[in-house]
From TrEMBL:
Family matches, as InterPro entries: DNA_clamp_sf, DNA_polIII_beta, DNA_polIII_beta_C, DNA_polIII_beta_cen, DNA_polIII_beta_N
Chief site of localization: cytoplasm
Cellular localisation: Cytoplasm
Sorted UniProt keywords: Cytoplasm, DNA replication, DNA-binding, DNA-directed DNA polymerase, Nucleotidyltransferase, Transferase
DNA polymerase III beta sliding clamp C-terminal domain boundaries: 251-373
Name recorded for this polypeptide: Beta sliding clamp
Residue stretches making up the DNA polymerase III beta sliding clamp central domain: 135-248
GO terms of molecular function: 3'-5' exonuclease activity; DNA binding; DNA-directed DNA polymerase activity
Length: 377
């Protein structure tokens, strides 16, 4: 096996594939990068058993100056190989494989490292196109960013570490909850007849979102029983799916409210940041919101018995309903507001100990976040 390639082009593809390579895996071969050179191009594969990424650099592309002198395949230690390539002195490099040993040359530098037989690498699953659909990359990246913020990081309930995606009657609904907060985003899909229901690990979606850069226009999604495949240009992103039934979250979302306030999301976020300076110093990371409808006042309190307290009158666009005093985790609120971006938002409350909702004022039907308050008495 022998090939030459532009180093920058190789590193760009290697960076995508290495997202799936873990140094902590219990399967030694998965700490490696699989390289396969054919007449069509050079294919890089990385996997940690949960996520697998395969990317092909075509030989006929002028950007990468790839030349395949001799086909072949090998597994090289990913971390070490990557560090070598980053430090090579010239723009181009040549990799030659003989007897499971790789020689990497660039300018006056030459490295030799040992590899493994490519036949020992696990086979990627075959996923047919029977259940597939195409999604706009920027829209799907937004869906990921607005839902993974609420996935659980606790392995005690593995099902909650994923995002539940349901596609029915031309509508995609993505929802995540860690039992303290919830984020749900939906979009209408034109011309889609495929129905699907699956739970994908939050980590998988986070890594996928990083690959959906501005220069990517769309991604194809294919679904199998326990795997999902996203195709982005010359790159295939595989993820295992979580087994089990996701809890019915529709009953968690209140359908009525007693108090509603409209805020500017950036202004509220700045106020929560200030209040949390004190709450983070206390034993209980809690801030309190006091709503006085008759007086037209909304006050935010942060308190640390050891340090001091903060009190701030919040500005708002609209206020209606009943007086209320409610406490909540400011970190949950900050993450929720960051997901809502620069929009004007409506916050709706039902009772001091009932979950409250946040929705963008201009698109209430397609995105909602829910936060459970904290009992402080």
């Amino acid at each position: 096996m022998k090939f030459s390639i532009n180093r920058s082009s190789f590193l760009k593809t290697f960076a995508d594939v290495s997202r799936a390579i873990s140094s902590k895996t219990t399967i030694p071969v998965l700490t490696g990068l699989k390289l396969v050179a054919t007449t069509a191009g050079l294919t890089l594969t990385g996997s940690d058993a949960d996520i697998s990424i395969e990317a092909t650099i075509p030989e006929d592309s002028e950007d990468n100056t790839l030349t395949i002198q001799e086909p072949g395949a090998i597994i090289l230690p990913a971390r070490f190989f990557g560090e070598i390539v980053k430090r090579l002195p010239e723009d181009n490099m040549t990799v030659t494989i003989e007897d499971l040993q790789a020689t990497i040359t660039s300018g006056a530098s030459e490295f030799t490292i040992n590899g493994l037989d490519a036949a020992t690498y696990p086979q990627l699953p075959e996923i047919s196109s029977d259940r597939s659909l195409t999604l706009k990359a920027d829209t799907f990246r937004q869906i990921i960013g607005q839902t993974v913020i609420a996935v659980s990081t606790q392995e005690s309930r593995p099902i909650l570490t994923g995002v539940h995606i349901s596609i029915q009657n031309g509508t995609l609904v993505a929802v995540a909850t860690d039992s303290h907060r919830l984020a749900q985003r939906s979009i209408d899909l034109e011309g889609v007849t495929t129905d699907a229901d699956f739970i994908i690990p939050g980590r998988s979606l986070t890594e996928l979102g990083r690959m959906l850069t501005d220069d990517v226009t769309e991604t194809e999604l294919r679904i199998a029983d326990n795997q999902v495949l996203f195709t982005i240009g010359q790159t295939s992103f595989y993820s295992r799916l979580l087994d089990g039934n996701y809890p019915d979250t529709t009953r968690l979302i209140p359908t009525t409210s007693n108090t509603r306030i409209e805020f500017s999301a950036p202004a509220l976020l700045a106020a929560i940041n200030r209040a949390s300076l004190m709450s983070h110093e206390g034993r209980n990371n809690v801030v309190r919101l006091n709503i006085e409808v008759g007086a037209g006042q909304v006050t935010l309190f942060g308190n640390s018995p050891e340090i001091g307290n903060v009190e701030e009158q919040l500005s708002f666009n609209a206020l209606e309903g009943e007086d209320l005093e409610i406490s909540f985790n400011p970190d949950y609120m900050k993450v929720a507001l960051q997901g809502l971006g620069q929009s004007t938002i409506e916050v709706a409350f039902t009772a001091p100990l009932r979950p409250f909702t946040l929705v963008p004022s201009e698109d209430k039907e397609h995105y909602i976040q829910l936060i459970t308050p904290v009992r402080t008495f």
